[in-house]
């Protein structure tokens, strides 16, 4: 594989050598072009030129039959000689037929017009002049292709079975070798049958053939022997069994336990320590490396000279490099404890051996020295004795001489006698001298003397060595003592580990016995029956609740609706209720039941038919799950509809009850008022006697009659409703009728009292004004009214009590939870249905209407769809009528659609964008030539550009044929405008009543279809709305190999964020042991997601992805609480859309290790505790678990979206789709789902890329955008002085191309909706199209020469780091495309961009709509308040940043403690110290700069921080040419300023981010800079040049800078605000206290803090990002801990005067709303104080004119006037306060909120204040003083 990347460098050399050595090369030859994908480029082997060329003859000649035609001619049947048509490749052809004979230049065919298999012609189209061997990868030398062809200027190969790659340059999966090496070939992997059986091939290294992932307890190059600790036959019997030797090793063949130390592999040394499996694995890896090195050595020895040898040498060099990298990675495993222990033991043994050796040498030297000394002494003694003897002998001789003289005298000897005696003596002496023994002794003595001298030298040398050794003894002893201590610790640990092992073995034996028993029991029970029964039981339980609630609510609805209709007299309302209740007729129920029965029957048939088609072992489980959930969905759908209807009707009943309350209160007050007026009239009319009440009596009688008539009509309606209900429903309602009988009677009593009352009092008032009455008549009227009021007062409490009892019979909370659970089940069911990877058989008359599972708005500018297709070629209908319809996605009116069809033996892609059809036929691969198995089709549309792909795989290898065809719309249309209510998606056919457009009006498809993806969503035919004529009994689905379209042929799984995998009882595959390990590979572009989760009560283990990095959190019952392990140093970023291997190792039950891509990331120690888990969730978890008590320990509740593979526990694989608990995942890894086509920008972010884009010549580009901001830079590109930019300016879109501006007339593109921009630049015109509305201008410089587009330039989306006049964009940009020079039109993958700054590439928060109003139990109600006479004006000015510093924006209560509050208003803080941080631009701004500042500036400041980076002080001129800054980088303080073009930079040596206070003085004095820290360390820098004029402008920035500032001069990570406190700011020895502006700055508090956002008493507010807004429907939930009883919590204000305000006043929480009609509000007052120092939960829900307020479960609501012309405005939302200009005069408080807010959510989406659009004033984000 290493040579593949080096091939482009080698290929030119090969070509040069080929051309140089080919002396007979033809000038007509050509060189193969380079493949874009990186394939090889090789030279053409020139054929020899034919010696005799054919002569062109204009006309033939007539010759006799007996004569032969000349060479190059043939005789026709008429006898005429005609020239041979052999294309210059032959000079002879057969008579009559003209078939060419002996084709030259490697050609074949009747006219030498073709190339044989394995050869390719010299031209792309037409007849080749010659053919040459396919360069696959090398022509002639190494050609492994069946055939080859040219495509897009490069050669593509159709490889043999064992090879793969565009040029057959690598081995196919299951084979190994190096095809690029001359003489090499691909051989089949041999893993002795011990590889993964789930794979369709044996998995080995593609170059060396070494087997990967040996299973069945085997190891070795070919998995040919049992692993250490196992014995048996790994190759044939495959019975490797664990040694039963109590942890010791055994014989690998017989299993006999070894008495001595365990046998180890060659090259290992573990004499005294029992090494664990990691050591054996490492040993095996080293052995394999040795084998590889030996192979490399043998290969190097066989190297020959030449290009091929050079290439092989390069290959070996790269292989050696990779081997070196691999070996270095192996060395990284030294972090594990076992390896450290082994290394320590080895070092200790070496030291012991060295010490023993030195000791032995010393002893040996000492003994030799003593021996030499002894021998020397002996020799010396002998020499002394000899000298003494010689001396004695001399004395004796002298004595003899004297005695001789004396003897001669005494004896009187004569001289002759004396001479005779002397001669005799001399003879005796000579004899003594010449005696041999004495000579030998002398020689021996000399030799001994020499030996003694040599021994003495050796002794001296040994003595020197002995002294040297003795000097090392102390060090050796010290090291030995240390090693002895370590060995003691190790011995203790080993003893403890041995105890644990013993206990573990005992437990394992018990578990093994119990497991065997359980497995025997488990075999008797069928798993599918339990699963289906449990699912049906849960479904029955779920359905029982809604049915019971539905039965009770139905009676309440019927009775209460009737009562309300009678009281209000609204006949229309009663008829609407009758219409709603008519939905429960018998026919509808019977149809629903019949439909459910049919669906169940179809599911059963599909289950039976797919039983034999299951090629991957997954279809059956998917169908089973689909069947069960489909039945649940059918029944739940009916229950959902009924429950929703009941809920809506219940709301109307409650509203009716509210109306009863309101009207009764109104009538009561009105009656009392009339009673008072009547009494006053009685007093003034005592003297009148002619009063008559005839008219009054008539009116009263008429009203009573009308009431009786309405009651009779009501009773008849009730009777009709009862008769219209099903018998079963009536029986269920009888019990509810009895329970509400008391309420009915009381209500009718009130009805009798209140219905005529209104009419009576109006008539009384009118009559009393028009006539004169008597005193008796007045008395009668007064007593009548009094009795009515009294009766009403007595009945009204009874009515409320009865209504409350009725409500308690059907609590709304249960309904809400049941409906929510039903919706979750439906969503899960549809998610499972969308992932059923099974085809459907279509017979020509069948059709499926699919639920597209995507918002049609996302299909406007970009549409992508893929599906699998297989034709039923043996069907006679298809032969008779081959043109067939495949699919249609579009509007019902046949305008704006995309479709697929088969026409004229071609696959045709058709799309319509409102004008003419665009048809793209794939004529390169006729349908009749398609194989009889599945192929894959992909269609795309980017704006007006469309293209279609066809991929035909090979079932026996990884070779694929790919075809592509493009097209585009000729007109200006570029959007697919689908209407959500009219869009349909038909596959395979259409129903009879649907009319297709003419281009697609064809018979239905015959064959099998399977949907794959729609845009980036996985989609399935089984997520259908309707099916037509689908009979699975007669037409079963077709089987498809799920791995046929996967190049790696490895199993991977796709998670869409809603599903998860659940592996239960993971110890069935491996055991928790001393080393517990989890492995998994992930691939995702998202920022956040849950990867692994294990739960056991309050104990948990979670591995998550947070902002693209790993976040591991766990608690196994530790006394110290949960343990956090995160990639804080950002070593391994996961969300780069590449596969990453994650390993989690739990060592010795006390150390957690995180490894990514075999690289150690981080480790942490904890209490020694074993993992207490049995089940593991992968990629997500059920909602009830994610929102349980462990939710506070999770970084988020987002499921994983992306691909996973290779999940292992203890190196044992799991097939996730076969696990019973898996839900909502699918096979494969769709590339479209891993692309980042969207990007979200927060106003300070941008992304950039460098490409060859001809922006000023022929250019077209487009993209979607969505925003709520009126201005911002969308796109920017500059080329010299020419600038091309697209921006928003006050709601309009503006194109600026080299000074030419085109602006849209509309200024409403910041409406939060998706809009599509297309920009076109050509030499004639500039064009800007927004949502199909085109604006254009002539190109004023069309005559200038075009600029060269060859250079690569950088362009930006969302903003620019360059200084431009426009602010960066806030919002979303998606589906961008360009016309480029180096590639076709493709949707931009922002993940591949080289520069990404603060941009989120997954998700678009602007797109999230508010959720619907949640139905909650209403405990109290309040009437809508009337509108005020005074109209509230609106502020026309744009909201600007406040101009006040740290002072209150509204009225401030000048007290230190609110008497109603438990906590003081201001926490304990440091005087004149301020807290910065929380947001990126937290800062204070000071406008005053002294006049002499440019000459000398001395600042003094105290700081305290833990930040490693951040800005402390900054000031500059407008262009930021002159500047002065103090910031912190890597914990060190840095003082910088410029002096002309130079920059002076003073950096402290120590770090000061220690959380302590430090005094810092920094001085700029012309060309000298000083930095003084704590008065001790003075650092000074200067430069010797001339000082130019140095001027800066206000403001001075303290603690941070404004967005976009300082980037030019300061490193980016120090530009943002530092997190800490500053105090005592002085400039030129004068204090600076009054800031002109403040952003997210609070007093520096003392004491502990907690998570939350603190709003200080100095005043301030937060303006949320435009992605969050309050429209007609929303839910806001948050928690508060106030320090003042009054203050504004939330405020939203629209441009038309509508507003929503939530505030506290004296502990009462109020929500006030104006919807364009009038003000209305509701309030909640808690029994306990809201200001008690505890956290309180507040929830506000709005649905149009209904607003509900929930404070700590105390609920109130209000129903305001309905505004039929209401518009869903998206305006900024203020938290904690609001500018005075936006407040209305009707609000009861105008103070800012003082206290803490946390867990703020809008529509169930968390709101991060750190990413807010503006944080103004004294607001501390993410930090709140603890209570």
Brief overview:
With 1827 residues, this protein is α+β, with helices and mostly antiparallel strands.
What count of helical segments does DSSP give?
A: 17
Care to count the β-strands? 90
| Percentage of residues in DSSP E strands | 25-35%
The largest pleated sheet is described as: 14 strands, mixed
Roughly what percent helix? 25-40%
Q: Sum up the overall morphology in one term.
A: globular
How big is the Rg?
48 Å
The low-confidence parts are 1-66, 261-273, 581-586, 610-626, 685-697, 721-730, 768-775, 788-796, 803-819, 1407-1455
3D architecture notes:
The protein starts with a helix and ends with a strand. It is an alpha+beta fold and 1827 residues long. Helix content is 30%, strand content 27%. Helix 7 (527-568) crosses helix 15 and helix 10 packs antiparallel against helix 15 (812-834).
Task: Write out key terms for the chains shown.
1827 residues; globular; alpha+beta; 17 helices; 13-stranded antiparallel beta sheet; 14-stranded mixed beta sheet
Question: In terms of topology, how is this protein built?
Answer:
Layout: H1 2-21, E1 61-62, E2 73-75, E3 80-83, E4 92-93, E5 100-101, E6 119-121, E7 131-133, E8 137-138, E9 142-143, E10 145-151, E11 154-159, E12 163-164, E13 170-171, E14 175-176, E15 187-188, E16 218-219, E17 225-226, E18 230-231, E19 241-242, H2 277-301, H3 307-332, H4 337-411, H5 415-433, H6 436-524, H7 527-568, H8 571-581, H9 586-610, H10 619-684, H11 694-724, H12 727-739, H13 741-770, H14 775-809, H15 812-834, E20 840-843, E21 847-850, E22 862-871, H16 876-880, E23 884-891, E24 897-903, E25 906-912, E26 918-922, E27 935-942, E28 945-953, E29 960-968, E30 983-987, E31 1006-1014, E32 1017-1018, E33 1024-1028, E34 1053-1063, E35 1075-1083, E36 1089-1096, E37 1099-1106, E38 1109-1115, E39 1123-1126, E40 1140-1147, E41 1151-1156, E42 1159-1165, E43 1176-1178, H17 1183-1186, E44 1201-1209, E45 1212-1213, E46 1223-1227, E47 1238-1242, E48 1246-1251, E49 1259-1266, E50 1272-1279, E51 1282-1289, E52 1292-1297, E53 1300-1303, E54 1315-1321, E55 1325-1330, E56 1333-1338, E57 1353-1357, E58 1370-1378, E59 1395-1397, E60 1420-1422, E61 1469-1476, E62 1483-1486, E63 1496-1505, ...
Parallel strand pairs: 60-85
Antiparallel strand pairs: 1-3, 2-3, 4-5, 6-7, 8-9, 10-11, 12-13, 14-15, 16-17, 18-19, 20-31, 21-30, 21-33, 22-27, 22-31, 23-24, 23-30, 24-25, 25-26, 27-28, 28-29, 31-32, 34-43, 34-44, 34-46, 35-40, 35-44, 36-37, 36-43, 37-38, 38-39, 40-41, 41-42, 44-45, 47-58, 48-57, 48-59, 49-54, 49-58, 50-51, ...
Helix pairs in contact: 1-3, 2-3, 4-6, 7-8, 7-10, 7-11, 7-12, 7-13, 7-15, 9-10, 10-13, 10-14, 10-15, 11-13, 13-14
């Amino acid at each position: 594989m290493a040579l593949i990347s080096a091939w482009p460098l080698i290929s030119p050399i090969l070509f040069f050598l080929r051309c140089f050595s080919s002396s007979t090369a033809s000038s007509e030859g050509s060189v193969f072009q380079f493949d874009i994908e990186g394939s090889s480029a090789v030279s053409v082997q020139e054929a020899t030129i034919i010696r005799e060329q054919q002569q062109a003859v204009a006309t033939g000649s007539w010759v006799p039959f007996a004569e032969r035609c000349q060479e190059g001619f043939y005789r026709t049947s008429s006898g005429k000689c005609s020239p041979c048509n052999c294309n210059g490749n032959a000079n002879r052809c057969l008579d009559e037929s003209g078939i060419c004979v002996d084709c030259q230049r490697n050609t074949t065919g009747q006219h030498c017009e073709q190339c044989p298999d394995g050869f390719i012609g010299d031209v792309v189209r037409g007849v080749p002049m010659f053919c040459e061997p396919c360069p696959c990868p090398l022509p002639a030398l190494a050609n492994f292709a069946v055939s080859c062809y040219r495509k897009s200027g490069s050669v593509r190969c159709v490889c043999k079975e064992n090879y793969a790659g565009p040029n057959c340059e690598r081995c196919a999966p299951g084979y190994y070798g190096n095809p690029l090496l001359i003489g090499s070939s691909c051989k089949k992997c041999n893993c002795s049958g011990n590889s993964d059986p789930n794979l369709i091939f044996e998995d080995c290294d593609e170059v060396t053939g070494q087997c990967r992932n040996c299973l069945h307890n085997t190891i070795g190059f070919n998995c040919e022997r049992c692993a250490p600790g196992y014995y048996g036959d790994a190759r044939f019997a495959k019975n490797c069994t664990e040694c039963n030797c109590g942890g010791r090793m055994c014989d690998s063949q017989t299993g006999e336990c070894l008495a001595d130390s365990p046998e180890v592999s060659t090259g290992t040394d573990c004499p005294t320590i029992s090494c664990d499996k990691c050591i054996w694995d490492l040993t095996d890896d080293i052995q394999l490396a040795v084998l590889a090195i030996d192979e490399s050595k043998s290969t190097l020895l066989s190297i020959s000279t030449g290009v091929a040898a050079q290439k092989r040498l390069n290959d070996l060099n790269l292989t050696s490099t990779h081997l070196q990298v691999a070996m270095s990675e192996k060395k990284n495993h030294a972090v594990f404890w076992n390896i450290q222990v082994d290394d320590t033991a080895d070092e200790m043994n070496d030291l012991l051996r060295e010490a023993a050796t030195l000791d032995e040498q010393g002893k040996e030297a000492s003994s030799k020295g003593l021996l030499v000394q002894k021998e020397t002494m002996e020799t010396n003694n002998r020499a002394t004795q000899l000298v003494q003897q010689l001396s004695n002998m001399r004395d004796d001789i002298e004595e003899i001489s004297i005695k001789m003289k004396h003897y001669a005298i005494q004896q009187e000897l004569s001289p002759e006698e004396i001479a005779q005696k002397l001669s005799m003596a001399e003879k005796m002496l000579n004899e003594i001298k010449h005696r041999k023994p004495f000579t030998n002794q002398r020689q021996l003595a000399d030799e001994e003397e020499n030996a003694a001298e040599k021994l003495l030298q050796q002794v001296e040398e040994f003595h020197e060595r002995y002294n040297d050794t003795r000097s090392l003894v102390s060090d050796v002893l010290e090291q030995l003592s240390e090693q002895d201590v370590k060995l003691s610790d190790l011995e203790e640990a080993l003893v403890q580990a041995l105890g644990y092992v013993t206990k573990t073995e005992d437990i394992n034996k018990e578990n093994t016995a119990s497991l065997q028993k359980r497995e025997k029991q488990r075999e008797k029970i069928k798993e599918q029956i339990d699963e289906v029964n449990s699912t049906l039981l849960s479904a029955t339980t779920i359905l029982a609740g809604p049915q019971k609630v539905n039965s009770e609510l139905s009676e309440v609805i019927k009775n209460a609706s009737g009562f309300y209709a009678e009281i209000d007299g609204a006949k229309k309302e009663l008829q609407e209720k009758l219409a709603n209740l008519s939905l429960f007729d018998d026919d509808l129920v019977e149809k629903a039941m019949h439909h459910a029965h049919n669906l169940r029957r179809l599911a059963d048939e599909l289950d039976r038919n797919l039983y034999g088609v299951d090629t991957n072992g997954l279809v059956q489980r998917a169908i089973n799950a689909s069947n069960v959930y489909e039945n649940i969905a059918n029944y739940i759908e009916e229950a959902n509809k009924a429950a929703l209807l009941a809920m809506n009707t219940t709301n109307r009943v409650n509203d009716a009850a509210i109306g009863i309350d309101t009207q009764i209160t109104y009538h009561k007050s009105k009656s009392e008022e009339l009673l008072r007026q009547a009494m006053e009239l009685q007093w003034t009319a005592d003297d009148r006697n002619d009063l008559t009440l005839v008219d009054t009596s008539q009116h009263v009688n008429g009203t009573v009659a009308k009431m009786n008539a309405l009651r009779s009509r009501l009773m008849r309606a009730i009777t009709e409703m009862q008769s219209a209900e099903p018998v079963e429903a009536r029986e269920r309602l009888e019990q509810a009728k009895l329970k509400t009988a008391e309420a009915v009677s009381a209500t009718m009593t009130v009805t009798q009292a209140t219905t005529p009352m209104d009419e009576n009092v109006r008539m009384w008032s009118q009559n009393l004004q028009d006539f004169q009455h008597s005193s008796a008549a007045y008395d009668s009227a007064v007593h009548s009214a009094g009795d009515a009021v009294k009766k009403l007062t007595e009945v009204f409490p009874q009515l409320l009590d009865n209504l409350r009892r009725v409500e308690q019979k059907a609590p709304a909370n249960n309904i809400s939870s049941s409906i929510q659970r039903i919706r979750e089940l439906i969503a899960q069911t549809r998610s499972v249905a969308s992932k059923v990877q099974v085809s459907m058989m279509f017979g020509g008359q069948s059709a499926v209407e699919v639920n597209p599972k995507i918002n049609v708005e996302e299909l406007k500018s970009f549409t992508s769809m893929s599906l699998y297709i297989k034709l039923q070629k043996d069907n006679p209908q298809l032969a008779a009528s081959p043109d067939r319809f495949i699919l249609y996605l579009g509007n019902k009116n046949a305008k704006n659609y995309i479709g697929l069809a088969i026409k004229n033996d071609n696959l045709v892609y058709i799309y319509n964008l409102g004008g003419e059809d665009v048809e793209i036929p794939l004529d390169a691969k006729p349908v009749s030539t398609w194989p009889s198995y599945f192929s894959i089709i992909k269609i795309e549309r980017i704006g007006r550009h469309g293209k279609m792909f066809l991929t035909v795989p090979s079932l026996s290898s990884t070779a694929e044929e790919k075809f592509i065809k493009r097209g585009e719309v000729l007109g200006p249309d570029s959007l697919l405008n689908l209407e959500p209510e009219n869009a349909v998606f038909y596959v395979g056919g259409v129903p009879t009543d649907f009319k297709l457009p003419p281009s697609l009006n064809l018979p239905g498809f015959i064959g099998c279809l399977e949907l794959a993806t729609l845009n980036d969503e996985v989609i399935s035919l089984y997520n259908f709305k309707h099916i037509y004529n689908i009979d699975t009994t007669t037409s079963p689905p077709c089987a498809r190999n799920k791995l046929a379209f996967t190049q790696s042929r490895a199993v991977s799984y796709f998670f869409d964020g809603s599903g998860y995998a659940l592996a239960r009882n993971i110890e069935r595959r491996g055991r928790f042991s001393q080393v517990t390990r989890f492995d998994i590979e992930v691939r995702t572009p998202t920022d956040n997601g849950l990867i692994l989760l294990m739960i056991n009560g309050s104990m948990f283990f979670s591995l998550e992805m947070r902002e693209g990095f790993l976040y591991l959190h766990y608690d196994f019952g530790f006394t110290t609480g949960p343990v956090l392990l995160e990639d804080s140093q950002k070593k391994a970023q996961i969300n780069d859309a590449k596969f990453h291997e994650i390993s989690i190792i739990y060592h010795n039950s006390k150390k957690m290790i995180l490894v990514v891509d075999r690289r150690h990331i981080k480790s942490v120690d904890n209490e020694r505790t074993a993992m207490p888990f049995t089940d593991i969730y992968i990629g997500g978890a059920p909602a009830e678990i994610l929102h349980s008590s462990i939710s506070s320990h999770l970084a988020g509740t987002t499921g994983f979206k992306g691909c996973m593979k290779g999940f292992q526990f203890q190196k044992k694989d799991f097939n996730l789709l076969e696990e019973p608990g898996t839900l909502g995942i699918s096979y494969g890894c769709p590339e479209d789902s891993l692309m980042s086509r969207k990007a979200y920008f927060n106003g300070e972010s941008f992304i950039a890329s460098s490409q060859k884009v001809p922006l000023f010549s022929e250019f077209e580009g487009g993209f979607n955008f969505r925003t709520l901001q009126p201005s911002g830079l969308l796109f920017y590109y500059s080329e010299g002085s020419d600038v091309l930019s697209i921006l928003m300016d006050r709601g309009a879109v503006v194109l600026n191309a080299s000074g030419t501006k085109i602006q849209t007339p509309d200024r409403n593109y910041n409406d939060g909706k998706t809009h599509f921009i297309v920009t076109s630049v050509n030499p004639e015109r500039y064009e800007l199209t927004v949502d199909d509305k085109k604006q254009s201008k002539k190109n004023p410089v069309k005559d200038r020469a075009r600029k060269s587009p060859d250079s690569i330039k950088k362009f930006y989306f969302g903003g620019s780091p360059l200084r431009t006049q426009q602010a960066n964009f806030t919002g979303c940009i998606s589906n961008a495309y360009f016309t480029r020079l180096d590639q076709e039109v493709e949707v931009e993958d922002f993940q591949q961009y080289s520069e990404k700054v603060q941009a989120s590439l997954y998700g678009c928060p602007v797109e999230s709509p508010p959720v619907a109003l949640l139905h909650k139990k209403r405990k109290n109600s309040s009437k809508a308040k009337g509108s005020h006479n005074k109209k509230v004006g609106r502020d026309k000015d744009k909201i600007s940043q406040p101009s006040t510093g740290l002072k209150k924006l509204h009225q401030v209560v000048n007290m230190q403690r609110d008497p109603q509050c438990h906590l003081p208003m201001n926490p304990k803080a440091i005087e004149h110290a301020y807290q910065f941080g929380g947001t990126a631009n937290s800062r204070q701004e000071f406008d005053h700069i002294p006049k002499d500042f440019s000459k000398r500036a001395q600042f003094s400041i105290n700081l305290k921080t833990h930040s490693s980076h951040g800005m402390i002080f900054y000031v500059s001129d407008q262009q930021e040419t002159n500047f002065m800054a103090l910031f912190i980088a890597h914990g060190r303080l840095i003082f910088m300023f410029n002096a002309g073009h130079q920059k002076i930079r003073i950096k402290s040596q120590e770090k000061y981010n220690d959380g302590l206070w430090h005094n810092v003085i920094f001085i700029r004095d012309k060309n000298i800079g000083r930095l003084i820290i704590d008065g001790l360390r003075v650092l000074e820098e200067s430069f010797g040049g001339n000082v130019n004029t140095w001027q800066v402008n206000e403001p001075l920035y303290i603690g941070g800078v404004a967005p976009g500032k300082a980037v030019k001069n300061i490193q980016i990570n120090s530009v943002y605000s530092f997190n800490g406190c500053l105090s005592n700011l002085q400039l030129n020895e004068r204090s600076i206290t009054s800031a002109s502006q403040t952003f997210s700055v609070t007093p520096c508090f003392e004491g502990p803090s907690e998570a939350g956002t603190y709003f200080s008493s100095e005043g301030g507010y937060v303006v949320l990002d435009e992605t969050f807004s309050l429209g007609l429907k929303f839910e806001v939930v948050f928690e508060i801990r106030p320090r003042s009883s009054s203050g504004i919590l939330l405020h939203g204000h629209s441009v038309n005067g509508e507003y929503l305000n939530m505030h506290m006043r004296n502990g009462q929480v109020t929500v006030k709303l104006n919807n364009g009609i009038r003000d209305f509000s509701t309030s909640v007052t808690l029994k306990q104080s809201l200001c008690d120092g505890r956290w309180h939960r507040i929830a506000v829900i709005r649905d149009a004119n209904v607003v509900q307020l929930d404070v700590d479960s105390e609920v109130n609501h209000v129903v305001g006037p309905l505004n039929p012309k209401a518009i869903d405005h998206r305006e900024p939302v203020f938290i904690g306060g609001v500018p005075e200009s936006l407040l209305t005069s009707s609000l009861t408080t105008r103070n800012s909120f003082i206290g803490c807010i946390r867990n703020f959510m809008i529509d169930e989406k968390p709101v991060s204040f750190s990413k807010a659009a503006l944080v103004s004033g004294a607001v501390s984000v993410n930090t709140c003083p603890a209570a």
